[in-house]
Structures are given as structure tokens and as C-alpha cells.
Amino acid sequence: MKNLALRLFFVLALPLILVIAWWFASDSSTDVYWPPLRTILTTFPDVWTGERLRDDVLPSLLRLLAGYTAAAVVGVALGTVIGSYRRVRAVCEPVLEFLRAVPPPVLVPVIMLFAGIGDTMKIAVIASGCVWPILLNTVEGVRAVDSVMSETARSYGITGPARLRHVVLRSASPQIFAGLRQALSIGIILMVISEMFAASNGLGFTIVQFQRNFAIPDMWTGILLLGLLGFVLSVLFRLVERQVLGWYHGLRDTSRRSS
């Protein structure tokens, strides 16, 4: 109980300090672009009503989920193949290094040409940015599979899909989750950027509309909501990661205690 209270204190202390600092720093502000935090918090429930959450936030989350899932499937599948075969890796590595150096927002106009301006374009933009950290981390994770473990599995007749599932993917899963964690924050950024181009709903579209209509406190509430959304998704991701990688964290804790 004491440890839990201490952890909560460490988690909440800095955000509380920042909110208090923001409150007092903006309290007497008369700058129209820098409204007091009190005004933003008062405006928040009036802006983000149930109807707006359904019409703007839900479509954004569904696009993020679709793009992120597509990137995860493609990234893990391709990463496993590339990481498993040295010659495939040698052929693909220069192309991967080139493609991952291209900033995903630059691809938005190109993807619009092929996918139009509907949801397909936004999902494709999110997937095109999220896939790289997942793919590259999967490649590194598969490359780093312990050769002794791999040979032992082979000697016990564990081959094919069973070897892939219980040896390769299981060993690479910490690295894969590291890529998934990086991709999540990239996905949120690309979700907003893609909705700023030729959209009729979504968080990015709504924030831009507030800015164009000079509704500055409303715009700040959108930015605040994005931050909260990122925080909640990060917490959910950590919970899933803890559940799936329980064996890995247990192994690390045991190693720390014994050292």
C-alpha cells in the first residue's frame, strides 16, 4: 500500500506542478492567444459534449485503431521474414533505411492522390508512419533470438508454426512491443495531421476549425483533449504490455534481485 501511494505520488507530482504553474502563469493573461487556464477548463465541458465526442473523437479513434492495427500486422509479418533470413535482410536493408528516413507527413499529398480524401487516406497515412518502428524493431528482435534456444527447439522437433510462435515471436516480443509503443505516439500525431487535410470531422479537423473561427479557448480544449487521449492510450498500452510480457518483466526482476 505504501509503495502504491509512493508510485502514485511520483506519477502525479510533476503533472500537478505543471498545471499549477500554468494556472498562475496564465491567470492574469489578457492575451487572446494565451487565455487563462481557468477559462480553458470552464470552456471544456461546453465544447466536448456527448454529440461532439461521437461525431469527432470516435471517428478519430477508429481511424487510429485501423491504421495502427494494419501497421502492426504488416510490420510484424514483414519484420519476421526479413529478420529470419540473412539474404533477405541484406537485400531489404538499404530500401528500409531509405524509406524510414522519409517523414510520414510528406507522404500525405502523395497518398491523397491514390487514396482520395476519405477515411482510406487517413488510415493509410497512419499505417505508413506507424509501420517503420514496428518493422525495424521486429527485425532486430528476430535477429537477436538466442541461437542456443533455437537449436534446442530444433533438436526437440519444434519446427514450423510452433517454432515461430513459441521461440521466435516470444523471444522477439519485448523488442516488438518497444516498436509498438513508439508507433502509438506516431499514430496519434499522424491521426491529427491527416484530419487537417480535406476532412469533415475528427479531432484534427475540429481543432483547425476552432483556430480558423478564432475560438481560441475552444482550440486549447482540443489540444488538452489530445494530451489526455495520448495519456490514456499510453496507460492502456502499458497494461496490455504488462499482461503479455509478464514473463519478461518477471525475468528482469529476478535478475535484478540476484545481481
The number of E-state strands comes to 0
Characterize the overall form: globular
Order of helices and strands: HHHHHHHHHHH
Structural class: mainly alpha
Gyration radius, to the nearest Å?
22 Å
The fraction of residues assigned to DSSP E strands is under 5%
Mean pLDDT, all residues = 89
- Give the oligomeric state: single chain
Q: What's the helix and strand layout?
A:
Blueprint: H1 2-26, H2 37-47, H3 50-84, H4 86-100, H5 108-115, H6 119-143, H7 147-155, H8 160-195, H9 203-212, H10 216-244, H11 246-258
Helix pairs in contact: 2-10, 3-4, 3-6, 3-8, 5-6, 6-8, 8-10, 9-10
Features:
globular, 0% strand, 259 residues
Structure description:
The structure is a single chain. With 259 residues, the chain is mainly alpha-helical. The protein has eleven helices and no strands. The longest helix is centred in the C-terminal third of the chain and has 36 residues, at 160-195. The radius of gyration is 22 Å and the shape is globular. The two termini are 26 Å apart. The relative contact order is 0.11.
Task: Produce a short descriptive summary.
With 259 residues, the protein is an all-alpha fold.
